UniProtKB/TrEMBL annotation, chains A, B:
Protein name, UniProt field: Endonuclease
Coiled coil, from the record: none
Bilayer-spanning residue ranges: none
Classification via PANTHER family: HYDROXYPYRUVATE ISOMERASE, XYLOSE ISOMERASE
Pfam family, one: AP_endonuc_2
Domain Xylose isomerase-like TIM barrel: 25-260
GO MF assignments: endonuclease activity
Record key words, sorted: Endonuclease, Hydrolase, Nuclease
Stored InterPro entries: IolE/XylAMocC-like, Xyl_isomerase-like_sf, Xyl_isomerase-like_TIM-brl
Domain of life: Bacteria
Organism, scientific name: Pullulanibacillus pueri
Amino acid sequence: METAYLSFNQITSDNCSLEEVAEACVKEGVPYIAPWRHKVQDIGVKKSAQIIRDSGLKVSSLCRGGMFPAATHVERQVRIDDNRRAIDEAAELGTDVLVLVCGPSPDRDIQGARAMVEAGIEALIPYAEEANVRLGIEPLHPVFAGDRSVISTLGQANDIVERFASPQVGVVIDVYHVWWDPNLYQEIKRSQGHILGFHVNDWIKVTDPLTSRGMMGDGVIEIRRIREAVEAAGYKGPVEVEILNDKLWQHPCQETLKRIKERFLEYV
Amino acid sequence: METAYLSFNQITSDNCSLEEVAEACVKEGVPYIAPWRHKVQDIGVKKSAQIIRDSGLKVSSLCRGGMFPAATHVERQVRIDDNRRAIDEAAELGTDVLVLVCGPSPDRDIQGARAMVEAGIEALIPYAEEANVRLGIEPLHPVFAGDRSVISTLGQANDIVERFASPQVGVVIDVYHVWWDPNLYQEIKRSQGHILGFHVNDWIKVTDPLTSRGMMGDGVIEIRRIREAVEAAGYKGPVEVEILNDKLWQHPCQETLKRIKERFLEYV
């Protein structure tokens, strides 16, 4: 795919600051960036927004809100409040997409936790509407069902979107999380009109599932086929490269970006 | 659950020989055992069958056949032949259930690999019928979709079973592989009449997904709820405890069995 759609998700160079990442994107002619909240908070939202404005980069999304389920009502409310701050930060950083990683269950009741996710999203809709920020439910690979998200399939995410039928709620599709799904292509079709983001990387031999994502082309995912299906479902926005890989974090971000551009052209 | 249904899956004490495991089962009053082919082959099928017969243990299943997809027709045929040997071994060891771990794709075409799985199972049915051995399709957690099985959900396994509509083909349900599935309970219902085995263990914080399964009660799976659903779908057979865990492999099998019996009563 042409790099005009390329967005550099900041976690791919988690070893670098927002300033370094923005500079590398400008040098490499990458038009979009996707910041993460922990990096933004390192230097503050105001300064982060300034860096991005000065760089002329567009922001494809902010990672991440979510983490809704919790053992008590009070704690769930604390999470909602934090999501409201995330919505404000997204708006201030110049994006209208907040990615939601929905969170694990506080106990063994996974269905109960799924209900808490829906209640959390519902509670955020009016605030998101006012801020003109959309909530992108990102289903996470089932390997993360115990510690990161009880929303494990695009089908579940689509169910939630359809239930609320709000322009504020959509899905974010990451090939790493969905490639294995026997219902993938029908669920991508069903996402038509509410795809808020698309992430690429690859599935290589997993050691730690969190930090062993692959560079596009190194693994087993049919990335181009999935990208074309996402496009056919009407998505014309930026494509984020998001690779959590501890080996990659030993390289300067500009070097990483150069490799990404090559692979993006060849495999996405 | 009462330990009258307990089957000790041999991989749980992969550090011990079949003879040691069988002896520990007898001492602990565990009625069933589930051998693995690599351990059986260490000492030969004949001797393995003798050990099991002498112990008086019943055999709940043999692990494992499968691994159908391959790049060439010749290699796929080699796999079929190996599965025929596995069927013979199951019969000789005194069980009518061969567990199928269906295999990964030889390339990026996961749908093509799924078709190869179906073709492989279809090719085995007449042989299995003659040997009076049933083929239990075990869906594997999607974390293994790249290196162990392209059959990732109970829904897929049920689809295959329904397509062949042969008494020789059914499913094996392992809580580790299916607990995260939003369609789990409806798919368990759909398995009614063709559940050939049920495996328990737990999902703990995953480091290496292959060797960090948990002891029942240590993780997040609603084991009893799933067991009751499997029973409600008509399964009345043995319940295999199958825990692949490298820490557990440092303990003598009798010690492991004692812990398992306690946990089985409390959590299964």
